[in-house]
Amino acid sequence: MIIHHFETQSSVLNQFMAEVRDVTIQKDRMRFRRNIERIGEILAYELSKTLNYNTHVVTTPFGTKKMKLPENELVLCSVLRAGLPLHEGLLSYFDKAENAFISAYRHHPDGGDDFEVIVKYFAAPDLNGKTLVLTDPMLATGKTLENVLGALSAHGKPRQIHIVSIMGSEEGIAHVKSVFPENTHLWIAAIDEELTSKGYIIPGLGDAGDLAFGPKL
Q1: Centroid of chain to Cα 110
Q2: Are the C-beta atoms of residues 167 and 204 closer than 8 Å to each other?
Q3: Under the phi-then-psi rule, with left for phi > 0, alpha for psi from -120 to 50, and beta for the rest, what region is 142?
Q4: I need a surface site. Which of 41, 51, 63, 205 has the fewest CB within 10 A?
C-alpha cells in the first residue's frame, strides 16, 4: 500500500486538523463538519495529481486552448454516518463522480471490548474498471474497511483503489495494508500511534459521527 501522510508537512491542513481535535472548537458541530469537508477538499486535490489525464480542446470567447483533463471514472464510497462530511469535501472537487454509500457499525456481542463490524445498508454502481475512492474519516482498527472491501466485491473489480481518511492508528493502517491490494493508495492527514482496547485512536479526536451529527443511542 502506498501511504501519503500529510501531517509531516507544514500546510494550512494543520490548522483544520488542530481544530477538529480541539475539545472546545469541537462543540460547534457546523464548524466541525466544515473542517472535515475542507480536509477532504485538500486530500482530493492531492489525490487528483495521481489520476490519468487526456488533452482536450476548450473553446473560449477568443479562441481555443488545449488543456489536460482527468479521465478516470471515479466512484466515491463513504461509510455512514461519519463519512458524510468527508464525502462532501471530495464531491465538491470530483463533482462528476458516481457515489456509493454503506453503513457499518461496531457490535459488541457481550458488552465488552471485543466487537465485530456489521455491514447493512449498501448502494453502489458497477465498479468494474473504475477508480474507487473509499472515505472513512477514522481508520482505527481497519476492520470497517476490510468489511467494506468484502461487500464491494459483489459490484465488480475496480481498476484502482484509494482510501481517504482524516486520521488513523498505526495498527489499523497495518491491518488495512495486509488485506487491500498492494497498489492501493492511502491519503491520510494524521497518524497516531496508540489504539485503546476498545478500538479508539489516542489522542485522536473522539467519535467523528457524534461530533458531526450529535450523540446516538
Answers
A1: 30
A2: yes
A3: left
A4: 63
- The three cell numbers locating residue 177: 495494508
Tens digit of pLDDT for each residue in 162-200? Answer: 999 999 999 999 999 999 999 999 999 999 998 987 788
Q: pLDDT: is 144 or 90 the higher one?
A: 90
Compute the C-alpha angle 51/56/57, nearest 5°.
155
pLDDT digits (tens, 9 = 90+) for 73-115: 999 999 888 889 999 999 999 999 999 998 866 555 665 555 5
| Residue 158 in grid coordinates | 475496480
Asked if 55 and 68 count as a contact pair (C-beta separation under 8 A), the reply is yes
Measured in whole angstroms, the distance separating CA 94 from the mean position of its chain's CA atoms is: 13
Domains and CATH numbers, the chain: 2-213 (3.40.50.2020)
